């Protein structure tokens, strides 16, 4: 039995993975990335902010330390969520890990890199100050690193499900679609020729007796 009967294997080999492989981690990373990029601008609405505690106020430090890693996390999560290619999905995983690490250590390098000061937490108690630091930087970054590492670990292992997905049978393409179409068009354009029916010869009684009389006379 040939490939035309059973189908052919899908291309891609080891790089092909099911889209659901990084879907859960990708979705969570998209949510965390959106949180990290937007919270400095919307946090002042519910008294959860760093200085300057004004909504939609842009600063260089916010751009470098919050919007940039948040956007990178969101893009990495999208790659993990939508890609069926192992290399592309792993690129998204590494992007989220680096973005999470920047959330954690970026504030420490802000002065050295001369990218501005992120401000101070607007909090009246130590508990709220700690909560702000975790939600904006350290806890957020650690959670992003964890999810990105989990996604990379899953992508680095080639499971039986991946092998089955890469080797799944697909319908074989028609090798000569143009010729088949031309043959079908020719059949419709030129109807089959029907041979005319030949009617059997009918002999009258007169001819039959006349031939008999002639034969008798010749015999005499």
Q: SS-based structural class?
A: mainly alpha
Radius of gyration: 40 Å
Helix content: 55-70%
Number of helices: 9
Give the neighbour order of strands across the main sheet.
1-2
Return residue spans where pLDDT drops below 50 for at least 5 consecutive residues. 1-12, 212-220
Residue-averaged pLDDT: 79
What's the total number of strands?
2
For the biggest sheet, the summary is: 2 strands, antiparallel
**SSE order, one letter for each helix or strand:** HEHHHHHHEHH
Q: Could you tell me how far the N terminus lies from the C terminus, measured between alpha carbons in angstroms?
A: 79 Å
The rough form would be described as elongated
Q: What portion of residues belong to β-strands?
A: under 5%
């Amino acid at each position: 039995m040939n490939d035309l009967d059973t189908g052919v294997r899908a291309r891609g080999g080891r790089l092909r993975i099911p889209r659901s492989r990084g879907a859960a981690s990708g979705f969570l990373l998209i949510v965390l990335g959106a949180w990290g990029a937007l919270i400095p601008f919307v946090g002042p609405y519910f008294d959860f902010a760093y200085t300057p505690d004004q909504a939609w106020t842009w600063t260089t430090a916010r751009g470098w330390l919050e919007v940039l890693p948040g956007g990178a996390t969101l893009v990495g999560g999208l790659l993990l969520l939508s890609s069926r290619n192992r290399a592309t999905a792993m690129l998204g995983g590494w992007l989220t890990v680096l973005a999470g690490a920047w959330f954690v250590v970026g504030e420490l390098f802000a002065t050295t890199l001369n990218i501005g000061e992120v401000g101070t937490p607007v909090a009246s108690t130590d508990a709220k100050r700690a909560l702000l630091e975790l939600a904006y930087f350290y806890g957020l970054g650690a959670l992003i690193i964890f999810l990105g590492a989990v996604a990379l670990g899953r992508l680095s292992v080639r499971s039986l499900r991946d092998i089955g997905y890469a080797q799944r049978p697909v319908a074989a393409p028609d090798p000569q679609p143009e010729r088949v179409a031309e043959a079908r068009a020719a059949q419709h354009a030129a109807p089959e020729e029907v041979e005319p029916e030949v009617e059997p010869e009918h002999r009258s009684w007169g001819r039959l007796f006349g031939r008999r009389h002639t034969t008798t006379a010749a015999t005499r």
